């Protein structure tokens, strides 16, 4: 059980007591409430603590001793009602002040307490004992107070806290839940309250702030939508870019192959050298070309099958001729993921190329330049830096590889293996 | 603050409350032990410290009870002296008397000086009953108490103290030895002893519930103790293990009675002795103890030789022989005292009556004096 008394009530009681020239007594008004604290921690299941809190809001001093009881300590209920009037139901205890005595309930106090408990119907009626001790030469005076709950057998003394009495630099200023019973205060608030409160009793400022907040929330939601859409468009475009890149790479390879063939043919005529000079990439390129061979007889447009390789090659040539220096870099084969077969399927490329054929290649390329994300730009840089090592590039570039999952058409490439 | 004399307390207390405290302090006898008065300490005031004195209105009252001292706080209000006091019962926090049993509280009359004293007496009664209630927890002592209660000799005059569980104080019964008191009253007629102030209390402490550690103690008022020959002379028998108080107490009382009887007899015997000497030696008696009859001085002459004889009668006369001290009136010793000789053994028998003793003493003087005279002349100087 915890008990607290507001600072002004405490000082008021002390004032009344200290100014009386004899013992002094009165009633304590307030409320008792139950506080349940549920604590949850990782190590244990939640525990609920039930605490009874006694709050003393006010006090009602008696004008004289023996005002509601007689010499035998018998409480007179009529006198009690006369003193308490309508405050009777908020009585939670009573207090007594006596100078230079022990901090113990006296004989009469105990008798009165028992009767008050019954009459007022408060099972845990508290008793606050003030004791004023002065030293013999009146140099030091001490006001001691103890809160008892005599109806219990054990733990009869409760600590009484006075909120905000102490070192406030280290503690927060506590607001107590004491209800304001002042009539004047209620009147003023009623008069001027309309300026601050709306009809529901909520402060107007709060409502306006809430409205601002809602508006901001809506805006944020809208922006979210826009962002989502733009992200999707970007995704799409990124896909297209990747496809285009693949096509470019393919075309480059083809032209490179052509040139090599021509060279070889020329070399074969002039120098009957061995094939040691042939690049391993050539063989791989050749193998790649051979791989594509089965699809060669198909023609675009006549069937849903992807277009023939020759058609692709021709389209690449047209692309290559129109593009400038960046495409020279684009001639370099596109790096592939480690473990992938290292070539794009004709399907997606075909689709992409079809779209590109509509005449948006340049835009796309420009967009590609702009919309390149980091991976693509790195790939692009690789392509640019290795422009000089044209024959060698495919192997080294191949070796670098790219993670398949990160690019938009990673899935597409992943599916190439299957 | 402590050991305050009653007069100091009366001086410091508020004038309106003074009569009440006066009767408590001066005449206050509560309980069996009437030699110990009620004591007042720790006088404090309930008024503001600026109030001019004397204005004390609260104090601690020390009440002897059953071998313990109860320290109760009594709280008045000097500004309202007509109001009855409040009490704090010290360590007996559970003692809560019923107000209806305290008529002097219910009809408190501040004008009656005895009111406070009467109220305290009523509270003591209630306290006694409270202790008896507490005895219910210890069946052994309860049995003892109940058995004693039935005996009309002791029933009315007992104080019970049921000890505390956590302290070393065990249960205790204190009771008055009633037959003893009746003997004392007869003694008082012969002597100047005032029976009102004398008391003989038997205190029996039970340290444990099985009554294996029982400590009986006899408390006598100082004059009785002196009359009986000091505390060393009076030994009460130990409490027999397995015995009960109802058997033991009469035993002790009987012992005391016997002792007192003996003392009284001795008193009578001494008186007889002195009377006999007075009649035999008549004019030779210088002085004698007319109260206790313990001393007698004679001035005798034998062949122009004057000498003094001091007779000291011991406590257990006639069992013990009186001491005769012969003193020369002429001779001094080196230390400036009169030359004297002490005679402890001379023909004597406790069965002689006073007359016979006087005659025999006379005969002895006659036989001894020549010796003494020679000794005086030889060893003393004029």
TrEMBL record, chain A:
<keyword id="KW-0963">Cytoplasm</keyword>
<feature type="compositionally biased region" description="Low complexity">
    <location>
        <begin position="308"/>
        <end position="332"/>
    </location>
</feature>
<keyword id="KW-0493">Microtubule</keyword>
<dbReference type="GO" id="GO:0070536">
    <property type="term" value="P:protein K63-linked deubiquitination"/>
</dbReference>
<feature type="region of interest" description="Disordered">
    <location>
        <begin position="251"/>
        <end position="418"/>
    </location>
</feature>
<keyword id="KW-0131">Cell cycle</keyword>
<dbReference type="InterPro" id="IPR037518">
    <property type="entry name" value="MPN"/>
</dbReference>
<keyword id="KW-0539">Nucleus</keyword>
<feature type="compositionally biased region" description="Acidic residues">
    <location>
        <begin position="360"/>
        <end position="379"/>
    </location>
</feature>
<dbReference type="GO" id="GO:0005634">
    <property type="term" value="C:nucleus"/>
</dbReference>
<feature type="compositionally biased region" description="Basic and acidic residues">
    <location>
        <begin position="255"/>
        <end position="266"/>
    </location>
</feature>
<dbReference type="GO" id="GO:0000922">
    <property type="term" value="C:spindle pole"/>
</dbReference>
<keyword id="KW-0498">Mitosis</keyword>
<dbReference type="GO" id="GO:0005874">
    <property type="term" value="C:microtubule"/>
</dbReference>
<dbReference type="GO" id="GO:0008017">
    <property type="term" value="F:microtubule binding"/>
</dbReference>
<dbReference type="InterPro" id="IPR023240">
    <property type="entry name" value="BRISC_Abraxas2"/>
</dbReference>
<dbReference type="GO" id="GO:0008608">
    <property type="term" value="P:attachment of spindle microtubules to kinetochore"/>
</dbReference>
<keyword id="KW-0833">Ubl conjugation pathway</keyword>
<dbReference type="Pfam" id="PF21125">
    <property type="entry name" value="MPN_2A_DUB_like"/>
</dbReference>
<dbReference type="InterPro" id="IPR023238">
    <property type="entry name" value="FAM175"/>
</dbReference>
<dbReference type="GO" id="GO:0051301">
    <property type="term" value="P:cell division"/>
</dbReference>
<dbReference type="GO" id="GO:0090307">
    <property type="term" value="P:mitotic spindle assembly"/>
</dbReference>
UniProtKB/TrEMBL annotation, chain B:
<comment type="subunit">
    <text>Component of the ARISC complex. Component of the BRCA1-A complex. Component of the BRISC complex. Binds polyubiquitin.</text>
</comment>
<dbReference type="GO" id="GO:0006325">
    <property type="term" value="P:chromatin organization"/>
</dbReference>
<keyword id="KW-0156">Chromatin regulator</keyword>
<comment type="function">
    <text>May play a role in homeostasis or cellular differentiation in cells of neural, epithelial and germline origins. May also act as a death receptor-associated anti-apoptotic protein, which inhibits the mitochondrial apoptotic pathway.</text>
</comment>
<keyword id="KW-0132">Cell division</keyword>
<comment type="similarity">
    <text>Belongs to the BABAM2 family.</text>
</comment>
<dbReference type="GO" id="GO:0010212">
    <property type="term" value="P:response to ionizing radiation"/>
</dbReference>
<keyword id="KW-0963">Cytoplasm</keyword>
<dbReference type="GO" id="GO:0006915">
    <property type="term" value="P:apoptotic process"/>
</dbReference>
<dbReference type="InterPro" id="IPR010358">
    <property type="entry name" value="BRE"/>
</dbReference>
<dbReference type="GO" id="GO:0006302">
    <property type="term" value="P:double-strand break repair"/>
</dbReference>
<keyword id="KW-0053">Apoptosis</keyword>
<dbReference type="GO" id="GO:0031593">
    <property type="term" value="F:polyubiquitin modification-dependent protein binding"/>
</dbReference>
<dbReference type="GO" id="GO:0005737">
    <property type="term" value="C:cytoplasm"/>
</dbReference>
<dbReference type="GO" id="GO:0007095">
    <property type="term" value="P:mitotic G2 DNA damage checkpoint signaling"/>
</dbReference>
<keyword id="KW-0539">Nucleus</keyword>
<keyword id="KW-0234">DNA repair</keyword>
<keyword id="KW-0833">Ubl conjugation pathway</keyword>
<keyword id="KW-0227">DNA damage</keyword>
<keyword id="KW-0677">Repeat</keyword>
<dbReference type="GO" id="GO:0070531">
    <property type="term" value="C:BRCA1-A complex"/>
</dbReference>
<dbReference type="GO" id="GO:0045739">
    <property type="term" value="P:positive regulation of DNA repair"/>
</dbReference>
